[in-house]
């Protein structure tokens, strides 16, 4: 059984394959496979083939049944060691095998020979060859079972995340629209009231009006970010090969108002191509370059560099500057919605770093940031590489 095939099997398919193999034995035993949930300490699934005999007083395990510490299946799974039960000095009744052979195994295989007249040669339960054969079977089955359970758990978790993400998109979209118009009206009311009162306002009252307008403008900005967030989630992606060298030339042209009159040394390597949506990635790099240009605002001799490494089908971009930086503790907070740990000074990069992370994530990549106060900022962006 190849690794690629194992990766595609479900737990039920793994068990079905195992039962098919065991059913070909002569004499054919009754078979029982039990999958265990160690977190809940109960039987997750139970499968059987043939008539299970219970003369030993140990009934078959059922789905949802709590662990019985005296049951041989639970003892075998707990210890990771096989067990043989005899009906007489030479009569083999059952064999219990862990899947695979380690403590707290996720599954157990039971072979029940009652009624098959299975006798043991020379008072040995298993010959050495039999033990090696069963070790190979249980090891391979255990590997397949572990992978199948991992994939099943991952699929369930992915489905839950997709449902949560859909709810978040709907909530974000509704919130941005429900807040947008009232905030705009409040801002307009303040402007009208201040204009009508005119010279009747003393300096303190005028200052209060000014503060009220600024708060309304900030709230309007937050609503714009919510709308951008909703747009990023809803926007379909058109994935094509992208030449990052060309893309960055376009981005730098847009950001000329932030570079005019400044001495900036651009240290940009020849970059590989990536796979992605050109418009979304254009917005990502507008945001990131605007951030580092602002970070170096007070640096008389600005240096901004971009280089790349290409490990295992991905491109890891490193975008750095020699600006003022920020405390290392801020780090991940930069990517949170509405975070203002680092004040922004320009109107560029309206996407927001929280949306940058979402866009990169939609491309199957990731982004992180490192900084030490007084030593600049470094972004690491991982994106899928385009085929040559």
The sequence of SSEs as H and E is HHEEHEEEHHEHHEEHEEHEE
Largest sheet: 5 strands, antiparallel
Q: How do the strands line up in the largest sheet?
A: 2-1-5-4-3
Kindly report the name of the CATH homologous superfamily of the largest domain.
GAF domain
User: Which CATH class of the largest domain applies here?
Assistant: Alpha Beta
Shape: elongated
Q: Could you tell me how far the N terminus lies from the C terminus, measured between alpha carbons in angstroms?
A: 33 Å
Contiguous helical run count: 9
Mean pLDDT: 78
Structural class assignment: alpha+beta
Give the strand content: 15-25%
**What is Rg?**
33 Å
Q: How helix-rich are the residues, as a percent range?
A: 40-55%
InterPro entries: BphY/WalK/GraS-like, HATPase_C_sf, HATPase_dom, His_kinase_dom, HisK_dim/P_sf, Sig_transdc_His_kin-like_C
GO molecular function: ATP binding
Domain Histidine kinase: 174-387
Pfam families: HATPase_c
Task: Provide a short characterization of the protein structure.
The protein has helices spanning about 5-10, 10-25, 70-80, 130-195, 205-235, 245-255, 255-260, 280-295, 355-360; strands spanning about 30-35, 40-50, 85, 90-100, 105-110, 240-245, 265-270, 275, 300-310, 315-320, 365-370, 375-385. The chain is of the alpha+beta class.
């Amino acid at each position: 059984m190849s690794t690629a095939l194992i990766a595609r099997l479900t737990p039920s398919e793994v068990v079905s394959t195992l039962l098919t193999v065991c059913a070909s034995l002569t004499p054919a035993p009754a078979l029982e496979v039990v999958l265990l949930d160690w977190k809940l300490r109960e039987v997750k699934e139970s499968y059987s083939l043939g008539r299970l005999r219970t003369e030993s007083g140990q009934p078959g395990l059922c789905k949802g049944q709590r662990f019985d510490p005296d049951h041989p299946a639970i003892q075998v799974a707990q210890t990771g060691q096989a067990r043989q039960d005899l009906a007489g000095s030479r009569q083999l009744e059952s064999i219990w095998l862990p899947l695979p052979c380690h403590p707290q195994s996720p599954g157990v295989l039971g072979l029940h020979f009652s009624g098959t007249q299975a006798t043991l040669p020379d008072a040995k339960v298993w010959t050495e060859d039999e033990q090696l054969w069963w070790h190979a079977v249980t090891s391979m089955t255990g590997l397949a079972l572990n992978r199948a359970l991992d994939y099943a758990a991952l699929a369930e978790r992915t489905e839950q995340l997709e449902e949560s993400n859909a709810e978040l998109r709907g909530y974000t979209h509704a919130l941005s629209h429900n807040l947008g118009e009232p905030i705009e009206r409040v801002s307009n009311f303040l402007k009208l009231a201040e204009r009508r009162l005119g010279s009747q306002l003393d300096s303190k009252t005028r200052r209060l009006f000014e503060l009220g307008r600024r708060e309304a403008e900030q709230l309007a900005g937050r609503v714009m970010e919510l709308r951008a967030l909703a747009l990023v989630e809803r926007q379909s992606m058109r994935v094509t090969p992208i030449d990052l060298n060309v893309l960055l030339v376009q981005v730098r042209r847009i950001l000329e108002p932030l570079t005019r009159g400044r001495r900036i040394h651009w240290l940009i390597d020849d970059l590989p191509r990536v796979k992605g949506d050109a418009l979304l990635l254009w917005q990502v790099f507008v945001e990131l370059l605007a951030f580092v240009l602002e970070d170096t605002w007070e640096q008389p001799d600005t240096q901004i560099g971009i280089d790349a490494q290409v490990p295992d089908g991905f491109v890891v971009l490193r975008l750095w500057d020699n600006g003022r930086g920020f405390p290392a503790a801020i780090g991940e907070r930069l990517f949170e919605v509405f975070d203002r740990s680092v004040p922004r000074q320009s109107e560029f990069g309206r996407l927001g770093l929280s949306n940058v992370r979402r866009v990169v994530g939609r491309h199957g990549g990731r982004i992180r940031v490192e900084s030490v106060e007084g030593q600049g900022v470094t972004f690491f962006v991982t994106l899928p590489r385009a085929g040559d």
